[in-house]
Amino acid sequence: VCRLSGSYAGGILAAGVFSFSRLTWQWSITAEVFSLNNLFVGLLMALTVHFEEASTAKERSKISRLGAFCCGLSLCNQHTIVLYVACIVPWVLSRLLKKTELSLGHLLKLGLCFLAGLLPYLYLPASSYLNRARWTWGDQTTFQGFLTHFLREEYGTFSLAKSETGSSMREMLVSQLAQMRSELSLPVLALALVACLSAALPRRQQKSSVIWLFAGMLCVYSLFFAWRANLDVTKPLFLGVVERFWMQSNAVVAVLAGLGLPILVSLAGSMLEGGLLWLEWLSAVALVGAQIWANYSTCDQSTNYIVDKFARNLLSSMPMGAVVLLRGDLPGNALRYLHYCEGVRPDVTLVDQEMMTYEWYLPKLAKHLPGVSFPGNRWNPVEGVLPDGTRTFNLHRFLKVNK
Length: 403
Prior knowledge:
Keywords: Membrane, Transmembrane, Transmembrane helix. Pfam families: TMEM260-like. Strand 1 (323-326), helix 17 (329-341) and strand 2 form a beta-alpha-beta unit. This protein folds into two domains: 2-299, no CATH class; 306-401, no CATH class. Strands 3-5-4 form a three-stranded mixed β-sheet. The longest helix is centred in the middle third of the chain and has 26 residues, at 247-272. It has helices spanning 2-5, 8-19, 22-28, 34-53, 57-74, 82-98, 104-117, 123-130, 143-150, 169-184, 186-198, 205-228, 236-243, 247-272, 277-299, 306-316, 329-341, 361-365, 395-401; strands at residues 323-326, 349-352, 378-379, 384-385, 391-393. The termini are far apart. 63% of the residues lie in helices and 4% in strands. It has 19 helices and five strands. The protein is globular and about 85 Å long.
């Protein structure tokens, strides 16, 4: 923001209102993919601005290669960023083509840089082949298994759930807009709109290309996500799942607001025939301060040990050598963290009931569960033999052979 607009206050506004929003703050103190995705979103946008501001072909070439690498690397963390990558890549290529700097060799180098960013994916088949992880997801030793994991087919590719019927596209967009207003405030949304409108002014043509790109990224992401997010946001649980993905669009809105602030102050200053730099800083500090004031008490979790105590109490209550059946993210992840990472109660064995329904669970994890007998290939409510020869067992049979 500062590089594009020349306004330090605008940069502080963009960073502050986004970082101290309830949603960003909440997920930045949680072990999830979303905070790292926010970092990649900011990185790609910053590189886009650096590319646009570059003055020489050599500098543009260097930034474009770095950007291609970061695009690939960002896709190793969360799939939704592919929508931003799909907007940025054609824009960069078109700018290079317009300046007659896009040769076949340069295009090949960009492709190789992008593939280099995807190298962390090699860990999946390597880890799956070695099979030393006591907890993992999927079997990536085959190409089909890798593709299943890469495309999230077990959840539903480009969907949040495999079989849920969610809210309509219109309901999803209305909910997103309401959430933006709640998270970022109405003045911030107004400033973002000012930035978009200013891009149409002739004297703003130097900045308009990047502003339109960011606005396009916001629209593409919001429309696509509203179309594919198949969860009912009228239910608080599902709303909590969906709103995490709105941080990616909130980041763009915050940047546009940071660009809109100096534009609005400059316009007001020209009308009043006087400098209003103090108003720019006052507005930025007030809006960021309001975010901190509104969200600190809710987001300050420095004394919250509820999940830790919950998991420790559960583990401490188990008899020696117990086999613990897990179901659900909260008990499952909490107990697994303490057991596998901190070595709490090494005598107990953790078995995930839901994971036993997947065909890869026993081949990959059974050897890491000594002392547990599995009377078949995978768990199923109805015991028997499937057409492909898979022997299923139910919970009654499992408990009977492990009593």
